[in-house]
């Protein structure tokens, strides 16, 4: 997470950033911005056992059944409008493909891990929305605990107006936060699941989390028990900050629908019964105030930049041959290969009709490739993720550069709405895409951060200017060389797309100094490809072919029959 202060100080970008970040940072179950995430580590995480959406185009309710009450924060970000529900670590035991169909103001939604110890639900709104209310209901009367978020439609003008107020409030909060550096530090540490020193705060947090729940929760048709319209007039007491919500109900759009909260029902009947909530022991974790408490991830940027320039200039004076030989390695005889399984956590990537998730098949493949490469003994193999966690696009690139990668291989599996496209494609970076489909694919893959509800402040460019361009050109040549090597090895072992090498502006391929390719293993929209992607034998076969290509790229001679 990026500190608000840093964003604001980023000059012109600040405007974009602020707009992008917290239009309506409405409701936090934890009324302080104090992080208490790590409390989760003490027990089993809550399990989300069912989700559903109800309502119409004016008001829509999202409900998640959970095995224990939990802290959360919820806010809206625009362009496109998304509702972000930040949670402590939650296991999602939900039917495959749920979330692809929304209702009312919610087109679709997704969920998953966002970072260690943190989970997130992202609701895709089809219009400007405000959070009317949000709360957690305790398990009661045979119904599981529920997280409820009520959305109300608004218009852009109202949304913008509210934003100004929220922004001011956030700045004030940030200023206050800066007076408590240890809290900020703790917030930064919370992402690593570091133990919470202030254990006594947990109970308080829990109280805060449960406070909004009235004695008489709104009836929710969890198992078809409830009929229509039994909603109480008096909404649940609101978590802070209240004023924004008051604004929300002032929205002209919303005024005439007041008092008719939507009743979720979709999918309600077929849900599994929730696991019985583990009694009592649930350590409660309020999510930290997502923006205000976020720590800066500043490293030694300028130092890196200086080193980078040095390296770039060195590269210019004596262009490296193909394959590239890099200076200053710690282990000179072992090349560093970074494998980047696409998507993860809250970002599922493509989803096949039968419910196969891109994030899963690409991780499985990446592991197979890692094992083959590592078994050769020639490489130090690193992965940008090795579990179901979301990783920002910029962080994937940074990871490769920080580890002095000699080669970066991103793994994906595409999906097309129409057409019978099949086979693997290797992409290398280019400002100009080689064709429309390539351009669209890059645009789709580049949306990963957006999909996960990450603010879209540009990553700090560490090096800019013409030197970078020239270095990139050299790197690109290496990337293209590797892509061609890869294709010639892979085509012997699996089906390739009719144009197997294409170009587009993928963000993960933009490290100026690391030869990088993005492999689309196949199409999840093709049944045949999907079958291959799910086959361990196919993965092993293709991973072997790719290992041969990596060997060839680095000029490593291996026994012919390997
Ligand atoms: Zn992908």
From TrEMBL:
Region named Disordered: 173-302
Keywords of this entry: Hydrolase
Pfam families: Amidase_3, AMIN
Superkingdom to which the source organism belongs: Bacteria
Catalytic activity: Hydrolyzes the link between N-acetylmuramoyl residues and L-amino acid residues in certain cell-wall glycopeptides
InterPro entries: AMIN_dom (IPR021731), MurNAc-LAA_cat (IPR002508), N-acetylmuramoyl_amidase_3 (IPR050695)
Low complexity bias (residue ranges): 185-197, 243-260, 275-289
Gene Ontology molecular functions: N-acetylmuramoyl-L-alanine amidase activity
GO process annotations (BP): peptidoglycan catabolic process
A single cellular component GO annotation: outer membrane-bounded periplasmic space
Domain MurNAc-LAA: 397-551
CDD domains on file: MurNAc-LAA
Annotated EC: 3.5.1.28
Name of the featured protein: N-acetylmuramoyl-L-alanine amidase
Organism for this UniProt entry: Kaustia mangrovi
Native organism taxonomy: Bacteria, Pseudomonadati, Pseudomonadota, Alphaproteobacteria, Hyphomicrobiales
């Amino acid at each position: 997470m990026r500190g608000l202060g840093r964003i604001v100080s980023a000059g012109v970008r600040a405007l974009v950033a602020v707009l992008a970040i917290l239009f309506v940072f409405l409701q936090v179950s934890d009324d302080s911005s104090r992080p208490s995430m790590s409390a989760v580590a003490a027990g089993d995480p809550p399990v989300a056992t069912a989700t559903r959406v109800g309502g119409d185009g004016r008001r829509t309710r999202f409900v998640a059944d959970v095995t224990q009450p939990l802290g959360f924060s919820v806010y809206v970000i625009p362009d496109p409008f998304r509702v972000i529900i930040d949670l402590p670590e939650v296991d999602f035991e939900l039917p495959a493909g749920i979330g692809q169909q929304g209702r009312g103001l919610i087109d679709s939604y997704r969920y998953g891990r966002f970072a260690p110890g943190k989970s997130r639900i992202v609701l895709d709104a089809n219009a400007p929305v405000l959070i009317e209310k949000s709360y957690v209901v305790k398990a009661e009367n045979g119904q599981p605990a529920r997280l409820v978020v009520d959305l109300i439609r608004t218009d852009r003008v109202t949304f913008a107006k509210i934003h100004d107020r929220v922004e001011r409030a956030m700045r004030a909060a940030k200023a206050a936060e800066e007076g408590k550096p240890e809290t900020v530090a703790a917030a930064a540490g919370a992402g690593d699941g570091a133990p919470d020193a202030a254990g006594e705060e947990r109970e308080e947090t829990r109280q805060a989390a449960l406070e909004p729940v009235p004695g008489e929760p709104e009836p929710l048709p969890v198992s078809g028990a409830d009929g229509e319209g039994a909603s109480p007039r008096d909404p649940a007491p609101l978590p802070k900050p209240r004023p924004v919500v008051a604004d929300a109900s002032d929205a002209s759009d919303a005024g005439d629908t007041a008092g008719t909260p939507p009743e979720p029902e979709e999918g309600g009947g077929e849900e599994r019964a929730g696991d019985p909530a583990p009694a009592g022991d649930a350590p409660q974790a309020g999510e930290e105030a997502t923006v205000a408490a976020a720590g800066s991830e500043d490293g030694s940027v300028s130092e890196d930049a200086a080193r980078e320039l040095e390296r770039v200039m060195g590269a210019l004076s004596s262009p490296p041959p193909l394959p590239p030989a890099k200076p200053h390695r710690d282990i000179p005889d072992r090349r560093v290969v970074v494998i980047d399984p696409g998507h993860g956590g809250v970002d599922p990537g493509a989803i096949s009709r039968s419910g196969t998730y891109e994030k899963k098949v690409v991780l499985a493949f990446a592991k197979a490739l890692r094992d083959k490469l590592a078994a050769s003994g020639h490489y130090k193999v690193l992965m940008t993720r090795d579990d179901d966690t979301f990783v920002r696009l910029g962080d994937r690139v940074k990871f490769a550069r920080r580890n002095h990668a000699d080669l970066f291989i991103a793994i994906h599996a595409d999906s097309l709405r129409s057409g019978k496209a099949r086979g693997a494609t290797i992409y290398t970076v280019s400002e100009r895409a080689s064709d429309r489909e390539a351009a669209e694919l890059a645009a789709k893959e580049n949306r990963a951060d957006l999909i996960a509800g990450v603010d879209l402040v540009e990553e700090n460019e560490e090096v800019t200017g013409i030197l970078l361009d020239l270095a990139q050109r050299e790197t690109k040549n290496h990337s293209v060389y590797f892509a061609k090597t890869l294709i010639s090895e892979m085509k012997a072992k699996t089906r390739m797309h009719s144009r197997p090498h294409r170009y587009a502006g993928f963000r993960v391929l933009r490290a100026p100094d690391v030869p990088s390719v993005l492999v689309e293993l196949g199409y999840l929209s093709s049944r045949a490809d999907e079958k291959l992607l799910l086959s361990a034998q196919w993965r092993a076969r293709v991973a072997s072919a790719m290992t041969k290509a990596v060997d060839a790229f680095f000029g490593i001679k291996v026994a012919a029959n390997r």
